[in-house]
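Homework help board

Subject: predicted structure for assignment chain

Our instructor gave us this sequence and asked us to write out the predicted structure in token form, then describe one feature. I got the tokens but I'm not sure how to describe them. Can anyone check?
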Amino acid sequence: MTEDHLSGHGWAASDGSGPVERTRRLTGPLGAIVRWVSIGLTLYIMLYVGTLFDVAGIQLYGRHRPLAYAGVLFLLFMKFPATRKSSRDHVPWYDFLLAAAGVVASLYSFASWDKWAVGVGLPTPFEQALGVALVLVTLEGSRRILGIAFTIVGLAFVVYPIVGPYLPGILATRPYTLSGLVQFFYLAGGGSGIFGSAMEIFTSTG
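My token output:
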């Protein structure tokens, strides 16, 4: 996952003046940090895919996902502005906040992975807050990268369990609590949730 992976193509300008650069061109200390995180993340994934960590006796399967995702979210919110009209030469405060929320939630999952692998209990209020934050950050990140249509589909999967008990007929579902949803989307790992099997594929390919 390099800066080139995150650069994408230009947006079409509404005034017909030509494409608008999708990503920021950062300079100075922040630009250097972004470049080094990008290089470090690329090298880390190469080492992981090459099983060199396994050879060294470092078991990262599963917990690798939130660690790599933390780097991806940081790069995403540093490089991709919220809208076409957003500045391309500096990062606004809210993107630092979104990046921080995503990184903290992901690293907490990385640190807690072994405990969660043994058994997941009811999430604490702090874990509920992290889970909600990571879902929202993920949806916003998908909007910036993939567009609003993809985000609406993702949002539908999040909202459906909440409104399901109030829907008629075969559309109805059993009620879910916030704790239950956080368990599935954030704490579950394994084959489901944000850090499920799909994340293993996403964070293991170039």
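Reply (TA_rk): Your tokens look well-formed. For the description, you could write something like this. The radius of gyration is 19 Å. That's the kind of observation they're looking for.
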